[in-house]
Amino acid sequence: MNHSGLTLRKIETRAVSVPLKRPVVSKVGRFEEWPMVLIDLHTEEGIIGHSYLEPYISAAIPAIRTVLAAMERQFVGTALRPVDVYQASTGTFHLVGREGISMIASAGLDMAIWDALAKSVEMPLAVYLGGSVGSVTAYNSNGLWLTPVETLAAEAEELVDEGGFAGLKIRLGRPNLADDIAALAQIRKGAGEGVKLMCDFNQGLDYSEALQLCHALDDEGLYWFEEPVVYNNYAGYAELARQLKTPLSIGENFYGPRSLYQALQQQACDLVMPDLMRIGGVTGWLRAAAVAGAAGIPVSTHLYPEFNAHLMRVTETAHWLEWQDWGNPILVEPFELQDSRLVIPEKPGSGIEWDETAIKRYRMD
Question: Domain 128-355 is of which CATH architecture?
Fold first, then answer.
């Protein structure tokens, strides 16, 4: 089906809470289930765009849905031009700020628009964006949380086997350095030689703690240090990046492309990993990736592996895709993994389709 354009008819949102195979245990809390907002963008032409948001806490869902309902009223009956909608929706929030719920809701709408537009011309999103369908290098981020050290070797082995992974995300920042060192030894024992370990501190340290711990771990051969301190302390990150040998990665909390630009201006990191719901959806990602590409900074992803796989195919300095299976239970056909690569299917749009039976099971409202 080929259309000159699509017109918004309505935005439908649903809330689900999906059980996690392995609980998330980090400095920011423990999560047994994963809340998600599912977005179905209905057009007058019959095309439905899908996207989803992962707000971490279920208490944020009503606010997100309220903002999306307001966006429906703002754009109903209008042509779905993603750049125009992005400009208009983010511009609406100048008076209340362009971070937090406002940007998250705008990003969810943007992702659904791009999915619908690619479907309308029967192209995979990567192709619609000017790239090609293929696979993307991925690491497994499904485990190795701040859990008992004695469980980590077996878990690391399982995680590698889930997709022949060449990289694993690990979490460090236990109260005692010796426990982190012991955890590393167990993870390496289970993962085997040559598997890269991306270390995330989940913003769990103050600056002095980060300075001591990162220096203590700097010779451990970790692939990167991720977010040791609060996300917007760019001055602190710049000093850490200057002192450490291990590359420093930040960015899952960049709100919009300008935040990424500001971080790079301050030399606050060596690597970036924007999050789709904060960077501004597909439109925000494309703008941010262009800035990073111009600066020669490698770009990895955070969450949203299905959409991000398409985007990495058109990102100049594409690095690693973070893979989680947290949304798989509500998808008809999760993406395939082959030899540490996520494979984009030959399907129109993003390639996601809801499993309605599962959604009924996990629905919160």
Answer: Alpha-Beta Barrel (3.20)
